[in-house]
C-alpha cells in the first residue's frame, strides 16, 4: 500500500528558506511526541491504578508502554497531516529487503563496536529497562514484541518520516539524517541511569544507529524498510538481554 508520495517541495516552498524554523519544529515535535507519550501512559495508568492493578506487573508495564507509543504516534501523525508531510509506505521490493538486511547488519555492527569503545572508556551507563527486567525477565520479551507492533513503526514514522522529511526541505538529506538522528538519540536519554557523560555517550550511540536507519530510508523512500530494520534490531537486543540477564 502506497499511502503517499515522496516529500519533494518545489523551489517556491517557503519552508525551505527558513532553516531556523525547521530546526525549531523538529525539536518541538520531539518534545511534543514525548509529552504525548507521557499523556498516553498516564491516561491508561490512572484507571489501572484505580482498579487496583499491579502497576509493576509485566503485562501492565507493556500496556503502559504501548499506550505511550500510541500517544507518541498520534502527535507525529497530526503534525504530518497539518504540514502535509507525506511519508511513503509501500510493500517492500527485493531491493528494499536488501537494504533492510544491510541496514540491520550495519546497525548491529555499529552498536557492538561503539559499545566496546564506551566500555573501554568507562562510559557504560545503567539501563532503566534492564533494571526493571531484573525481577521478571519476560518484560524483555514483551518489549521485543511491542517493538515490532508499535515502537519501531511509531519512532520511524516520527524521526525518519516526519522530522527527517521536514529537515530535508530546509537542509537536504545529509543534514536531515544527522538532525533527525540526534533527536532520536535524545529521546532515549531517559532510558539510562548514572552520571551525565555515560548517559550522553549511550544516547549518541543510539543516534548513530538512527543515522543508519535514516540512510536506509533515504535510499529506499519507503518507511517500511527502516521500520523492519529497527524492529528486528530491537528484537535481537532484547532477546540477547533476556538470555543473559
Produce a short descriptive summary.
76% of the residues lie in helices and 2% in strands. It has eight helices and two strands. The radius of gyration is 18 Å and the shape is globular.
Describe what you observe in this structure.
By secondary structure, this protein is mostly helical. It has one domain. Helices cover 76% and strands 2% of the residues. It has eight helices and two strands; from the N terminus they run αααβαααβαα. It has a two-stranded antiparallel sheet with strand order 1-2. Helix 5 packs antiparallel against helix 6. The longest helix is centred in the middle third of the chain and has 34 residues, at 138-171. The termini are far apart. Residues 1-17 have low confidence and may be disordered.
Layout of helices and strands, plus pairs?
Blueprint: H1 19-50, H2 58-83, H3 94-120, E1 126-127, H4 128-133, H5 138-171, H6 173-187, E2 192-193, H7 196-220, H8 224-244
Antiparallel strand pairs: 1-2
- Strand proportion: under 5%
Sequence stretches where pLDDT stays below 50 over 5 or more residues: 1-17
| Envelope shape | globular
> What's the tally of helices?
8
- What is the topology, as strand order, of the major beta sheet? 1-2
- Strand segment count: 2
Rg measurement, Å:
18 Å
Q: Which structural class is indicated by helix and strand composition?
A: mainly alpha
Q: What separation lies between the terminal Cα atoms?
A: 40 Å
Query: If you average the pLDDT, what whole number results?
Result: 90
Number of domains: 1
The description of the largest β-sheet is: 2 strands, antiparallel
Provide the succession of SSEs: HHHEHHHEHH
Amino acid at each position: 500500500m502506497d499511502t503517499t508520495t515522496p516529500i519533494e517541495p518545489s523551489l517556491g516552498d517557503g519552508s525551505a528558506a527558513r532553516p531556523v524554523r525547521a530546526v525549531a519544529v523538529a525539536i518541538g515535535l520531539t518534545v511534543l511526541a514525548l509529552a504525548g507519550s507521557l499523556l498516553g501512559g498516564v491516561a491508561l495508568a490512572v484507571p489501572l491504578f484505580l482498579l487496583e492493578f499491579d502497576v509493576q506487573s509485566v503485562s501492565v508495564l507493556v500496556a503502559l508502554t504501548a499506550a505511550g507509543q500510541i500517544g507518541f504516534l498520534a502527535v507525529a501523525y497530526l503534525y504530518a497531516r497539518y504540514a502535509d508531510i507525506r511519508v511513503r509506505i509501500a510493500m517492500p521490493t527485493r531491493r528494499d529487503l536488501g537494504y533492510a538486511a544491510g541496514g540491520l547488519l550495519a546497525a548491529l555492527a555499529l552498536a557492538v563496536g561503539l559499545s566496546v569503545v564506551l566500555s573501554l572508556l568507562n562510559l557504560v551507563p545503567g539501563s532503566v529497562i534492564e533494571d526493571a527486567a531484573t525481577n521478571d525477565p519476560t518484560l524483555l520479551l514483551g518489549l521485543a514484541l511491542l517493538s515490532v507492533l508499535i515502537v519501531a513503526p511509531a519512532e520511524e514514522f516520527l524521526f525518519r518520516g516526519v522530522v527527517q522529511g521536514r529537515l530535508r526541505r530546509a537542509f537536504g538529506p545529509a543534514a536531515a539524517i544527522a538532525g533527525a538522528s540526534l533527536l532520536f538519540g535524545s529521546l532515549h536519554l531517559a532510558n539510562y541511569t548514572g552520571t551525565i557523560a555515560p548517559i550522553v555517550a549511550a544516547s549518541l550511540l543510539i543516534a548513530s544507529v538512527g543515522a543508519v536507519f535514516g540512510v536506509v530510508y533515504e535510499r529506499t523512500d519507503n518507511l517500511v524498510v527502516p521500520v523492519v530494520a529497527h524492529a528486528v534490531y530491537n528484537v535481537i537486543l532484547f532477546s540477547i538481554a533476556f538470555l543473559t540477564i
